[in-house]
Amino acid sequence: MSSIIESHTYVLTPENIDTDQIIPGQFLTTTERDGLGQYCFYGWRFDDAGAERPGHPLEAYRPGHHGVLVAGDNFGCGSSREHAPWALLDFGFRAVISSRFADIFRSNSLKNGLLPVIVDRDVAAHLLEHPGLAVRIDIGTRSLDVEGLGSFEFPLDPFSGYCLTRGIDQLDFLVQNEQDIRAYEERTGK
Length: 190
Fold this sequence. Notes:
Elements: E1 4-12, H1 19-22, H2 42-45, E2 68-71, H3 83-91, E3 95-98, H4 103-111, E4 115-118, H5 121-129, E5 134-138, E6 143-146, E7 150-153, H6 158-166, H7 170-176, H8 178-188
Parallel strand pairs: 1-2, 2-3, 3-4
Antiparallel strand pairs: 1-5, 5-6, 6-7
């Protein structure tokens, strides 16, 4: 992932969208990330027989055009599952903007390459009321530029930003720095 995300927003207004809605439990039998996008918001998009629901909330979603999801307050609540950010990423979202995320979902997202952007309620309300706005997210400066509204800072720890901009996770970081870690351990006796 580069340090800049430029895209248009796709809006899901409900509050308290939980991880079971993001990806239902019956699709959690795999540890593979690829292919989970087809199950993203499955219960919203398909009926029990697997037929597409006409008029479902993601019907107008266009991959490549809508790379940033704007969601209602408390996005990602419910049970902890890494499959939720995996499904959102595989579906085509690179970032999610909300006024609040469930802590475990936010942590899982950062560890798996999905950027959760926390904004004030008034900014979130504007984004929720105006679907399809152009946004620019700069991970390096931790800023969100919103078409017609302005620029806003969001919280992001430097290590997560480092990993996100390089497309690596915590394990990748350790592996890349293994020689330095071993040298430090030998030098310090730790």
